[in-house]
Amino acid sequence: MTGPRDLNAQIESLVNRLRRRQVVGSWCVSIETAMLLRQVVSATRWNQVETLIKVVKEDVGRRLVMAQPRELAVGNIVCRVLRLIREKIRTFSFYGGSGTGTNTQSSMINLLGDGSPMGAKRASPLIISELQEMINELENTYVNIIDQAMEHIHSNEIIMTVGKSRTVEMFLKTAAKKRKFSVLVAETFPTYLGHEMALSLSEAGIDTTVISDSAIFAVMSRVNKVIMGTHAVLANGGLISVSGAQMVATAAKHHSKPVVVCTGLYKLSPLYPYDEDSFNDLVAPDPVFSFNEGDLIDKVTLLNPYYDYVSPELVSLFITNTGGHPPSYLYRLINENYDPDDTDI
Amino acid sequence: MFSHLEITKGANTGLAPKEIHPAILVLGLQFSEFKICGANARCIAALTAFQKVIQDYKTPEGMGNAIRHLKWEISTIDIEMSDDEAKKLLCEKIDNFIRDSITVADRVIVEYGLQKIQDGDVILTYARSSVVQQLLLEAHTKGIKFKVIIIDSRPRLEGKKLLNCLVNAGINCTYAFLHAVGFAMRDVSKVFLGAHAFMSNGALYSRVGTAMVAMMAKEKNIPVIICCETYKFTDKVQLDSFVMNEQGNPNDIVNISTTLAPKPGLLSEWLNKPDLKLLNLLYDLTPSKYITTVITEVGMIPCTSVPVILREYKPMVQ
């Protein structure tokens, strides 16, 4: 068991790395957060479950979320851990604890709050093993998603994608081992992620064509389906995705082409987009209009949003590590994985 | 998919047949390097070049309605007329055509368009249309208070010239790229777009990306207004962007800088990779359901009335 000082150092280290964007990508962020929380749970001394929940939620969880508020995966993992803790305590008190064995929250707290450190000692390893299972599930996310590649991609299809998503890349490369198809990649200005994606796909032997963002509508009539990744999935099924994704999804809807989103469940957030802008960042406009183009700079407003909000009506299917789901099913997944008390982290 | 469309390779005047007039060669070079951009500018340049050619008495090549008009003029010239007189007459006719169908038409379109711009409007436009530019400048001169959002796209970056022009006139402008159109569209009250040609089925053939902007505006129920002279109307019908289009230089996609100095990006070795292709389309087709109204010099018409104009006003157009 690590002492509290080591634990604090670890927490500080992850908070700093998140703040400096040294941990890149939702998957890496999720795994690091989960591992840190496992350390926290095993190192914290608790008698009442409220103590543990307070430590995870407020002391550690809130700091991690504040370090990088746009990275919703951090909050998702914290919520999942809290849910796991509460679930385990509930089942533990139902089956193993002394007393009436009722399932209500108050009786559970009383059971363990009667100053019985035995309860905590017995529940703790169960919680930690659940956390470990969650970490294993996170590490196997990609494997579970790409196993479904063959069902969705057929021969001689033309698939459109936008941006660079590790999940979609692996998805397409897996399908390419057995099927012959073409991919159109939108270049995704100004990040040019499309260029990287196209290079990577062509090196795997997939017939790839790069198109400029403006040609997306023009070529959409020949595309069979759109497959894209996302930065986060919100509670209503909407996506926070790379800028340009809304264009692609709308064009696909107008041509009645299915839009498939490949994502791990760790990206599913219990937050709801009451305002489309609250999850968006406007980043430096330099790629749009650089300083050396001179004196127009201070007379003009430049817009360079980093993310796009895609509404759930535009998405046909989510392919996740637990299988394929329509956007209307996500509320069940949220109910199973998150508690309503935790959404205010 | 696009193999039926020829890719424009770099122009090489050494390969041109010797009989072609140098003015046309210069014109061809300027077109292929996109030194002259935009339908009106190209048309005027072509016709001016033809004037020079007619002076030197060579047979010109074809360019749509304008050329049909010219041929008709040539064909109706009195056989008895002397060569000098005929040439002078033809040059005058060309000048008249430019004046009537382009310059004066633009002024009439601007007059009509001014009725559609009110105080407090937020107007979105895409790339650079000469008519829309004139309309916005005129509206500003008339003292109407409005804001403009200019959407631009790679690789042509035509919106920058429009931005320069409008900012120097003192108009409040916002500049964004196509990826931000969903974000920018939320405050917009009207969308003004230009045209390269208008098909008889009411579809708009314009700079690639126009269809995207029109579609996003339609999604948010924002009116899409096209400013188009009648000489751009054509008898052809087209259903999608594939059957007739032009491909630009694929290396424009490789170059990732937005300034004049080219900066090659990740795809600079694309020719060595057998599975990697680049596609640089120049035009696209906007279906008529995304267009609210078309402002022409004969009035404001719905886009489905294009064949009617062609039939009724053909004598006037010619």
Please characterize this protein's 3D structure:
The complex is a heterodimer of chains A (345) and B (318). Chain A has 345 residues and is of the alpha/beta class. Chain A folds into 2 domains: 4-139, Up-down Bundle (Four Helix Bundle (Hemerythrin (Met), subunit A)), CATH 1.20.120; 143-342, Rossmann fold (3-Layer(aba) Sandwich), CATH 3.40.50. Chain A has 13 helices and 11 strands. In chain A, the strands form 2 sheets. A 7-stranded mixed β-sheet of chain A has the order 3-2-1-4-7-10-11, sandwiched between helices. The radius of gyration of chain A is 23 Å and the shape is globular. Chain B has 318 residues and is of the alpha/beta class. Chain B folds into 2 domains: 13-102, no CATH class; 112-317, Translation initiation factor eif-2b, domain 2 (Rossmann fold, 3-Layer(aba) Sandwich). Chain B is built from 11 helices and 11 strands. Chain B has helices spanning 22-32, 39-55, 64-75, 83-114, 130-141, 159-168, 181-184, 210-219, 251-254, 306-312, 314-317; strands at residues 121-126, 146-152, 172-177, 190-194, 197-198, 204-207, 224-227, 276-279, 283-286, 293-296, 299-301. Chain B has a 7-stranded mixed β-sheet. Chain B has a 3-stranded antiparallel β-sheet with strand order 5-6-9, covered by helices on one side. In chain B, helix 5 (130-141) links the parallel strand 1 (121-126) and strand 2. The longest helix of chain B has 32 residues, at 83-114. Chain B is globular and about 65 Å long. The two termini of chain B are 37 Å apart. At the A-B interface, helix 10, strand 3, helix 11, helix 12 and strand 8 of A face helix 6, strand 3, helix 7, helix 8 and strand 8 of B. Strand 8 (300-303) of chain A pairs parallel with strand 3 (172-177) of chain B, so a sheet runs across the interface.
